[in-house]
Amino acid sequence: MDYNLWDYNCIRRLLEPRGFNFSKSLGQNFLVDPDVCPAMAQFLDADEHTGVLEIGPGVGVLTKELCAVAGRVVSIELDERLYPVLDETLADCHNFTLVKGDAMKLNIREIMNTYFADMDSVKVCANLPYYITSPILTMLLESDLPIDEIEVMVQQEAAERLTAPVGSREGGAITVMVNYYGDARMIMQVPRESFYPSPKVDSAVIKIAMHRDNHYAVGDKRKFFSLVKAAFAQRRKTLVNSINATLGIPKDRITGALVQLGLEPTIRAEKLVMEDFVNLADLLMN
Fold first, then answer.
1. What whole-number distance in Å separates Cα of residue 46 and Cα of residue 48?
2. How many Å apart are CA 228 and CA 244, to the nearest integer?
3. Between residues 1 and 263, which one has the greater pLDDT?
4. How far, in Å, CA of 52 to CA of 71, rounded?
5. Core-most of 59, 94, 220, 246, by most CB within 10 Å?
């Protein structure tokens, strides 16, 4: 049966007989705008040689579009109440596989090796619940997985932060992380009315094209990101005070490093560009 998964009444007929209530704790707001998911699938630029990993398929509205453009789609879903729904809505999608469990606890590399070994390219596409955006993105970026591209829908405010230039007021530690691993840009905005139930904020879709090599000369990633997080830990304070309070590095040593790099001792973390963070970490953490 061909379900119109953008239609409120269709979703209700699917879910109500199963006693399904939307879970606020799981951030469940399903897309009901007929234009959003086809656009996301097209922006992904996938073909029959592309494997797509989706996190949180919901009732399968985005999944169905991904199956139409990709060679294989694997979706990870935590909510067991949705398993029979997905069996029904995606019954005609023969290149679809459902993996049951928590994406934060599953072995993503093993899943990719199992299902995408014969694919030329692997991409991630997801409508992420707001509460888990940062943990999921951090996991995907830091795991050194063979992913070419990440395309995710997130809260508008988060999208602006994730795609902001490093060295701008909007940037933060997560901005530095994203820029370290890839090039991020916002590709479409999605109003709150596009969801059921409608959330209180708008959303946006971002795309991260992953770097294929060590784009920045960082010797120890763990130490580098430790410094970045410390720099933004108390962002209203100067960089010297924030790093000193968080990592315990003497203030005179931090000041000396900043002067050596031609930076003002009173500078704040939001004023540093990527090369500044790389060079500062080299001076302070190695």
1. 7
2. 13
3. 263
4. 8
5. 59
